[in-house]
Protein backbone atom coordinates (compact mmCIF):
# COMPACT_ATOMS: atom_id res chain seq x y z
CA UNK A 1 0.00 0.00 0.00
CA UNK A 2 1.06 3.57 -0.64
CA UNK A 3 1.34 5.68 2.54
CA UNK A 4 -1.81 7.65 1.65
CA UNK A 5 -3.76 4.41 1.05
CA UNK A 6 -2.58 2.93 4.36
CA UNK A 7 -3.59 6.11 6.21
CA UNK A 8 -7.04 6.14 4.59
CA UNK A 9 -7.65 2.50 5.58
CA UNK A 10 -6.50 3.11 9.17
CA UNK A 11 -8.72 6.18 9.48
CA UNK A 12 -11.71 4.19 8.18
CA UNK A 13 -11.49 1.60 10.98
CA UNK A 14 -14.35 1.94 13.44
CA UNK A 15 -16.19 -0.08 16.07
CA UNK A 16 -19.09 -2.27 14.89
CA UNK A 17 -22.36 -3.11 16.62
CA UNK A 18 -22.88 -6.83 17.24
CA UNK A 19 -26.03 -6.91 15.07
CA UNK A 20 -24.11 -5.47 12.08
CA UNK A 21 -21.56 -8.31 11.95
CA UNK A 22 -21.70 -9.95 8.51
CA UNK A 23 -23.45 -6.98 6.89
CA UNK A 24 -22.15 -4.99 3.90
CA UNK A 25 -20.56 -2.23 5.99
CA UNK A 26 -18.89 -4.80 8.22
CA UNK A 27 -17.59 -6.72 5.19
CA UNK A 28 -15.99 -3.54 3.88
CA UNK A 29 -14.32 -3.05 7.24
CA UNK A 30 -13.01 -6.62 7.05
CA UNK A 31 -11.44 -5.80 3.67
CA UNK A 32 -9.67 -2.81 5.27
CA UNK A 33 -8.36 -5.01 8.09
CA UNK A 34 -7.23 -7.68 5.64
CA UNK A 35 -5.37 -5.22 3.44
CA UNK A 36 -3.67 -3.66 6.47
CA UNK A 37 -2.83 -7.15 7.74
CA UNK A 38 -1.14 -8.15 4.47
CA UNK A 39 0.59 -4.76 4.28
CA UNK A 40 1.85 -5.23 7.84
CA UNK A 41 3.28 -8.69 7.14
CA UNK A 42 5.06 -7.54 3.96
CA UNK A 43 6.38 -4.39 5.68
CA UNK A 44 7.62 -6.42 8.67
CA UNK A 45 9.45 -8.86 6.39
CA UNK A 46 11.18 -5.85 4.78
CA UNK A 47 11.79 -4.13 8.15
CA UNK A 48 9.55 -1.19 7.19
CA UNK A 49 6.54 -1.51 9.50
CA UNK A 50 7.13 1.83 11.26
CA UNK A 51 4.58 3.66 9.07
CA UNK A 52 1.73 1.31 10.00
CA UNK A 53 2.53 1.45 13.72
CA UNK A 54 2.70 5.26 13.61
CA UNK A 55 -0.69 5.46 11.86
CA UNK A 56 -2.36 3.09 14.34
CA UNK A 57 -0.96 5.10 17.29
CA UNK A 58 -1.67 8.54 15.80
CA UNK A 59 -5.30 7.70 15.00
CA UNK A 60 -5.81 5.71 18.24
CA UNK A 61 -7.03 2.58 16.44
CA UNK A 62 -5.58 -0.15 18.67
CA UNK A 63 -8.57 -0.01 21.09
CA UNK A 64 -10.87 -0.20 18.02
CA UNK A 65 -9.14 -3.37 16.78
CA UNK A 66 -9.30 -4.94 20.25
CA UNK A 67 -13.01 -4.07 20.40
CA UNK A 68 -13.58 -5.79 17.04
CA UNK A 69 -11.72 -8.85 18.31
CA UNK A 70 -13.93 -9.10 21.40
CA UNK A 71 -17.11 -8.50 19.36
CA UNK A 72 -16.41 -11.42 17.01
CA UNK A 73 -15.53 -13.69 19.95
CA UNK A 74 -18.80 -12.87 21.72
CA UNK A 75 -20.72 -13.31 18.46
CA UNK A 76 -19.24 -16.80 18.01
CA UNK A 77 -20.24 -17.94 21.49
CA UNK A 78 -23.55 -16.11 21.97
CA UNK A 79 -25.19 -15.35 18.61
CA UNK A 80 -23.93 -18.10 16.32
CA UNK A 81 -25.38 -21.06 18.31
CA UNK A 82 -28.79 -19.32 18.21
CA UNK A 83 -28.35 -18.63 14.50
CA UNK A 84 -27.77 -22.32 13.75
CA UNK A 85 -31.09 -23.25 15.41
CA UNK A 86 -33.15 -20.91 13.23
CA UNK A 87 -35.07 -22.53 10.38
CA UNK A 88 -34.24 -19.67 7.99
CA UNK A 89 -30.48 -20.31 8.30
CA UNK A 90 -29.47 -21.81 4.92
CA UNK A 91 -26.26 -23.64 3.86
CA UNK A 92 -25.58 -20.83 1.40
CA UNK A 93 -24.82 -18.68 4.41
CA UNK A 94 -21.51 -20.45 5.07
CA UNK A 95 -19.58 -18.03 2.83
CA UNK A 96 -20.21 -14.90 4.95
CA UNK A 97 -19.96 -17.04 8.13
CA UNK A 98 -16.47 -18.12 7.08
CA UNK A 99 -15.53 -14.46 6.58
CA UNK A 100 -16.66 -13.71 10.16
CA UNK A 101 -14.42 -16.50 11.45
CA UNK A 102 -11.53 -15.24 9.34
CA UNK A 103 -12.01 -11.69 10.67
CA UNK A 104 -10.82 -12.70 14.14
CA UNK A 105 -7.75 -14.37 12.65
CA UNK A 106 -6.93 -11.28 10.56
CA UNK A 107 -7.14 -8.91 13.54
CA UNK A 108 -5.04 -11.03 15.90
CA UNK A 109 -2.49 -11.48 13.10
CA UNK A 110 -2.32 -7.70 12.61
CA UNK A 111 -1.93 -7.17 16.36
CA UNK A 112 0.84 -9.78 16.47
CA UNK A 113 2.70 -7.86 13.75
CA UNK A 114 2.54 -4.46 15.48
CA UNK A 115 2.53 -5.28 19.21
CA UNK A 116 6.28 -5.79 19.08
CA UNK A 117 6.51 -2.00 19.50
CA UNK A 118 6.29 -0.35 22.91
CA UNK A 119 4.23 2.60 21.62
CA UNK A 120 1.55 0.24 20.29
CA UNK A 121 1.24 -1.44 23.69
CA UNK A 122 1.00 1.95 25.39
CA UNK A 123 -1.59 3.22 22.89
CA UNK A 124 -3.91 0.35 23.84
CA UNK A 125 -4.43 2.13 27.19
CA UNK A 126 -7.20 0.50 29.29
CA UNK A 127 -8.25 -1.83 26.45
CA UNK A 128 -5.05 -3.81 27.09
CA UNK A 129 -6.97 -5.45 29.98
CA UNK A 130 -9.52 -6.83 27.51
CA UNK A 131 -6.68 -8.04 25.30
CA UNK A 132 -5.01 -9.79 28.26
CA UNK A 133 -8.32 -11.50 29.08
CA UNK A 134 -8.72 -12.50 25.43
CA UNK A 135 -5.21 -14.01 25.31
CA UNK A 136 -5.87 -15.87 28.57
CA UNK A 137 -9.02 -17.45 27.11
CA UNK A 138 -7.11 -18.54 24.01
CA UNK A 139 -4.20 -20.01 26.02
CA UNK A 140 -6.73 -21.90 28.14
CA UNK A 141 -8.07 -23.41 24.90
CA UNK A 142 -4.52 -24.43 23.97
CA UNK A 143 -3.96 -26.05 27.38
CA UNK A 144 -7.29 -27.89 27.08
CA UNK A 145 -6.25 -29.16 23.64
CA UNK A 146 -2.92 -30.42 24.99
CA UNK A 147 -4.45 -32.30 27.90
CA UNK A 148 -7.23 -33.81 25.75
CA UNK A 149 -9.89 -32.02 27.78
CA UNK A 150 -12.95 -30.85 25.83
CA UNK A 151 -12.18 -27.41 24.40
CA UNK A 152 -15.00 -24.88 24.28
CA UNK A 153 -14.91 -24.24 20.52
CA UNK A 154 -18.39 -23.41 19.16
CA UNK A 155 -20.09 -26.13 17.10
CA UNK A 156 -20.31 -25.12 13.46
CA UNK A 157 -22.05 -26.73 10.46
CA UNK A 158 -20.19 -29.88 9.42
CA UNK A 159 -18.52 -28.29 6.38
CA UNK A 160 -17.10 -25.52 8.58
CA UNK A 161 -16.26 -27.39 11.78
CA UNK A 162 -12.81 -28.66 10.80
CA UNK A 163 -11.81 -25.27 9.37
CA UNK A 164 -13.11 -23.55 12.49
CA UNK A 165 -11.10 -25.83 14.80
CA UNK A 166 -7.92 -25.33 12.76
CA UNK A 167 -8.45 -21.57 12.73
CA UNK A 168 -9.15 -21.51 16.48
CA UNK A 169 -5.84 -23.33 17.07
CA UNK A 170 -3.90 -20.89 14.89
CA UNK A 171 -5.61 -17.87 16.52
CA UNK A 172 -4.60 -19.22 19.95
CA UNK A 173 -0.96 -19.44 18.82
CA UNK A 174 -1.09 -15.82 17.61
CA UNK A 175 -2.58 -14.81 20.97
CA UNK A 176 0.43 -16.45 22.66
CA UNK A 177 2.77 -14.19 20.65
CA UNK A 178 0.70 -11.09 21.46
CA UNK A 179 0.76 -11.96 25.16
CA UNK A 180 4.53 -12.37 25.08
CA UNK A 181 4.89 -8.89 23.50
CA UNK A 182 2.66 -7.47 26.25
CA UNK A 183 4.90 -9.05 28.92
CA UNK A 184 7.91 -7.36 27.26
CA UNK A 185 6.40 -4.03 28.35
CA UNK A 186 5.53 -4.79 32.00
CA UNK A 187 7.04 -1.49 33.15
CA UNK A 188 4.79 0.49 30.77
CA UNK A 189 1.56 -1.34 31.60
CA UNK A 190 -1.11 -0.04 33.99
CA UNK A 191 -0.77 -1.58 37.48
CA UNK A 192 -4.08 -3.37 37.00
CA UNK A 193 -2.74 -5.14 33.90
CA UNK A 194 0.12 -6.70 35.85
CA UNK A 195 -2.19 -7.76 38.70
CA UNK A 196 -4.59 -9.28 36.18
CA UNK A 197 -1.86 -11.32 34.48
CA UNK A 198 -0.22 -12.56 37.66
CA UNK A 199 -2.99 -13.01 40.20
CA UNK A 200 -6.39 -12.91 38.46
CA UNK A 201 -5.35 -15.28 35.65
CA UNK A 202 -2.15 -16.78 37.13
CA UNK A 203 -0.49 -16.75 33.71
CA UNK A 204 2.85 -18.15 34.96
CA UNK A 205 1.16 -21.45 35.90
CA UNK A 206 -0.78 -21.52 32.61
CA UNK A 207 2.49 -21.05 30.71
CA UNK A 208 4.06 -23.91 32.71
CA UNK A 209 1.17 -26.08 31.50
CA UNK A 210 2.03 -25.17 27.89
CA UNK A 211 5.73 -25.98 28.43
CA UNK A 212 4.75 -29.33 29.95
CA UNK A 213 2.27 -30.45 27.27
CA UNK A 214 3.44 -28.44 24.22
CA UNK A 215 0.25 -28.48 22.07
CA UNK A 216 2.16 -27.49 18.91
CA UNK A 217 4.03 -30.80 18.80
CA UNK A 218 2.77 -34.38 18.71
CA UNK A 219 3.90 -37.92 17.96
CA UNK A 220 2.33 -39.71 15.01
CA UNK A 221 3.29 -43.28 14.12
CA UNK A 222 6.53 -42.95 16.06
CA UNK A 223 7.52 -39.68 14.34
CA UNK A 224 7.59 -36.22 15.88
CA UNK A 225 5.50 -33.52 14.20
CA UNK A 226 5.65 -29.82 15.03
CA UNK A 227 3.43 -26.93 13.98
CA UNK A 228 5.39 -24.04 12.49
CA UNK A 229 4.67 -21.35 9.89
CA UNK A 230 1.05 -22.43 9.59
CA UNK A 231 1.60 -26.15 8.91
CA UNK A 232 2.41 -29.43 10.66
CA UNK A 233 5.66 -31.01 9.49
CA UNK A 234 7.78 -34.02 10.40
CA UNK A 235 10.91 -33.26 12.45
CA UNK A 236 14.03 -35.33 11.67
CA UNK A 237 15.71 -36.90 14.73
CA UNK A 238 18.67 -34.50 14.63
CA UNK A 239 16.33 -31.47 14.96
CA UNK A 240 14.01 -32.80 17.64
CA UNK A 241 15.72 -30.85 20.44
CA UNK A 242 15.64 -27.61 18.44
CA UNK A 243 13.51 -24.88 20.04
CA UNK A 244 10.65 -23.63 17.86
CA UNK A 245 9.47 -19.99 17.78
CA UNK A 246 6.42 -20.99 19.82
CA UNK A 247 8.58 -22.62 22.50
CA UNK A 248 10.63 -19.44 22.59
CA UNK A 249 7.53 -17.27 23.05
CA UNK A 250 6.48 -19.27 26.13
CA UNK A 251 9.93 -19.16 27.72
CA UNK A 252 10.34 -15.43 27.03
CA UNK A 253 6.92 -14.69 28.56
CA UNK A 254 7.91 -16.71 31.64
CA UNK A 255 11.21 -14.82 31.92
CA UNK A 256 9.34 -11.50 31.75
CA UNK A 257 6.71 -12.51 34.32
CA UNK A 258 8.99 -14.24 36.84
CA UNK A 259 12.25 -12.30 36.77
CA UNK A 260 10.97 -8.73 36.68
CA UNK A 261 11.33 -7.17 40.18
CA UNK A 262 7.84 -5.64 39.91
CA UNK A 263 6.34 -9.02 39.03
CA UNK A 264 8.17 -10.76 41.87
CA UNK A 265 6.71 -8.24 44.33
CA UNK A 266 3.16 -8.84 43.12
CA UNK A 267 3.06 -12.61 42.45
CA UNK A 268 1.86 -15.05 45.12
CA UNK A 269 4.54 -17.73 45.52
CA UNK A 270 2.27 -20.00 47.56
CA UNK A 271 2.63 -23.78 47.80
CA UNK A 272 0.69 -24.58 44.61
CA UNK A 273 2.31 -21.90 42.45
CA UNK A 274 5.76 -22.81 43.72
CA UNK A 275 5.30 -26.53 42.96
CA UNK A 276 4.05 -25.72 39.44
CA UNK A 277 6.94 -23.39 38.67
CA UNK A 278 9.53 -25.89 39.90
CA UNK A 279 8.34 -28.28 37.17
CA UNK A 280 10.25 -26.05 34.75
CA UNK A 281 13.59 -27.28 36.14
CA UNK A 282 13.18 -30.59 34.31
CA UNK A 283 12.96 -28.77 30.95
CA UNK A 284 15.96 -26.47 31.46
CA UNK A 285 18.52 -28.71 29.79
CA UNK A 286 21.95 -27.57 28.59
CA UNK A 287 20.75 -27.91 24.98
CA UNK A 288 17.80 -25.58 25.64
CA UNK A 289 19.92 -23.02 27.49
CA UNK A 290 22.45 -23.00 24.62
CA UNK A 291 19.62 -21.90 22.32
CA UNK A 292 18.24 -19.25 24.73
CA UNK A 293 21.09 -18.20 27.08
CA UNK A 294 18.77 -15.94 29.12
CA UNK A 295 17.33 -19.11 30.64
CA UNK A 296 20.42 -19.32 32.88
CA UNK A 297 18.77 -16.58 34.96
CA UNK A 298 15.58 -18.65 35.11
CA UNK A 299 17.59 -21.67 36.26
CA UNK A 300 19.16 -19.63 39.09
CA UNK A 301 15.81 -18.20 40.14
CA UNK A 302 14.20 -21.67 40.32
CA UNK A 303 17.15 -23.03 42.33
CA UNK A 304 16.66 -20.16 44.79
CA UNK A 305 12.88 -20.71 44.85
CA UNK A 306 13.34 -24.40 45.65
CA UNK A 307 15.11 -23.68 48.96
CA UNK A 308 13.32 -20.52 50.10
CA UNK A 309 9.83 -19.21 50.70
CA UNK A 310 9.57 -15.74 49.12
CA UNK A 311 7.75 -13.11 51.15
CA UNK A 312 4.03 -12.86 50.39
CA UNK A 313 3.00 -9.84 48.29
CA UNK A 314 2.16 -6.69 50.23
CA UNK A 315 -1.57 -6.18 50.72
CA UNK A 316 -1.73 -2.63 49.46
CA UNK A 317 -5.02 -0.91 48.84
CA UNK A 318 -5.39 -1.10 45.06
CA UNK A 319 -8.26 0.33 43.01
CA UNK A 320 -8.27 -2.26 40.27
CA UNK A 321 -9.56 -1.46 36.80
CA UNK A 322 -11.75 -4.04 35.09
CA UNK A 323 -12.01 -4.78 31.35
CA UNK A 324 -14.73 -2.59 29.88
CA UNK A 325 -15.21 -3.80 26.29
CA UNK A 326 -16.36 -7.35 27.11
CA UNK A 327 -18.70 -6.18 29.89
CA UNK A 328 -20.10 -3.34 27.78
CA UNK A 329 -20.99 -5.60 24.83
CA UNK A 330 -22.55 -8.25 27.06
CA UNK A 331 -24.66 -5.73 29.00
CA UNK A 332 -25.78 -3.94 25.84
CA UNK A 333 -26.89 -7.14 24.08
CA UNK A 334 -27.93 -9.38 26.99
CA UNK A 335 -31.29 -11.04 26.26
CA UNK A 336 -31.17 -9.94 22.61
CA UNK A 337 -29.21 -12.87 21.16
CA UNK A 338 -32.20 -14.36 19.30
CA UNK A 339 -33.30 -10.98 17.97
CA UNK A 340 -29.76 -10.32 16.71
CA UNK A 341 -29.62 -13.77 15.07
CA UNK A 342 -32.97 -13.22 13.29
CA UNK A 343 -31.85 -9.79 12.09
CA UNK A 344 -28.61 -11.26 10.71
CA UNK A 345 -30.36 -14.15 8.94
CA UNK A 346 -32.50 -11.61 7.12
CA UNK A 347 -29.88 -8.94 6.39
CA UNK A 348 -26.45 -10.65 6.38
CA UNK A 349 -26.55 -14.43 6.07
CA UNK A 350 -29.14 -14.97 3.32
CA UNK A 351 -27.28 -13.53 0.32
CA UNK A 352 -28.64 -13.85 -3.21
CA UNK A 353 -26.57 -15.40 -6.00
CA UNK A 354 -25.76 -11.92 -7.30
CA UNK A 355 -24.62 -10.72 -3.90
CA UNK A 356 -22.38 -13.78 -3.50
CA UNK A 357 -20.81 -13.21 -6.93
CA UNK A 358 -20.25 -9.53 -6.18
CA UNK A 359 -18.59 -10.33 -2.85
CA UNK A 360 -16.48 -13.07 -4.42
CA UNK A 361 -15.19 -10.56 -6.99
CA UNK A 362 -14.25 -8.16 -4.19
CA UNK A 363 -12.35 -10.90 -2.35
CA UNK A 364 -10.56 -11.84 -5.58
CA UNK A 365 -9.28 -8.25 -5.77
CA UNK A 366 -8.26 -8.26 -2.10
CA UNK A 367 -6.47 -11.61 -2.26
CA UNK A 368 -4.53 -11.17 -5.50
CA UNK A 369 -2.31 -14.07 -6.53
CA UNK A 370 0.86 -11.97 -6.46
CA UNK A 371 0.04 -10.75 -2.94
CA UNK A 372 -0.57 -14.29 -1.66
CA UNK A 373 2.75 -15.46 -3.15
CA UNK A 374 4.56 -12.59 -1.42
CA UNK A 375 3.00 -13.62 1.91
CA UNK A 376 3.99 -17.30 1.54
CA UNK A 377 6.68 -18.22 4.13
CA UNK A 378 8.51 -20.57 1.74
CA UNK A 379 9.89 -19.78 -1.73
CA UNK A 380 8.46 -21.93 -4.58
CA UNK A 381 10.53 -24.99 -5.50
CA UNK A 382 11.08 -26.74 -8.83
CA UNK A 383 8.74 -29.72 -9.24
CA UNK A 384 11.56 -31.85 -10.73
CA UNK A 385 14.80 -31.06 -8.88
CA UNK A 386 13.56 -29.20 -5.79
CA UNK A 387 15.76 -26.09 -6.11
CA UNK A 388 14.32 -22.59 -5.69
CA UNK A 389 12.27 -21.80 -8.80
CA UNK A 390 11.53 -18.50 -10.54
CA UNK A 391 9.34 -19.74 -13.42
CA UNK A 392 5.75 -20.96 -13.29
CA UNK A 393 3.60 -22.92 -15.76
CA UNK A 394 1.55 -20.40 -17.77
CA UNK A 395 -1.33 -22.87 -18.26
CA UNK A 396 -2.17 -24.29 -14.84
CA UNK A 397 -0.42 -21.48 -12.85
CA UNK A 398 0.36 -24.06 -10.11
CA UNK A 399 3.59 -25.89 -11.02
CA UNK A 400 6.99 -24.23 -10.73
CA UNK A 401 10.29 -24.99 -12.53
CA UNK A 402 13.84 -23.66 -12.53
CA UNK A 403 14.83 -23.99 -16.21
CA UNK A 404 13.15 -25.13 -19.37
Automatic annotation (TrEMBL):
GO terms for cellular component: centriolar satellite; cytoplasm. GO terms for biological process: inner dynein arm assembly; motile cilium assembly; outer dynein arm assembly. This is ZMY10 protein.
Amino acid sequence: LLPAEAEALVQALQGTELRDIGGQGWLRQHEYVEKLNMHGILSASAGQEQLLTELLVTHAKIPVLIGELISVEIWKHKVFPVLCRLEDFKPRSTFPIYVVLHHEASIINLLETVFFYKEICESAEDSVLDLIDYCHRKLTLLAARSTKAPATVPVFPQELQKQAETMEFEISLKALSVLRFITDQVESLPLSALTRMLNTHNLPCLLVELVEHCPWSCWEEGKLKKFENGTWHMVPPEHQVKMTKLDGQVWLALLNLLLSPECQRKYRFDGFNKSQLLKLRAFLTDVLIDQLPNLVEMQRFLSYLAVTDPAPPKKDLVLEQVPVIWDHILKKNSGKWEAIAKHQVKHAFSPTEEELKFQARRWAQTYSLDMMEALAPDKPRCRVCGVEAAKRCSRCRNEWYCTR
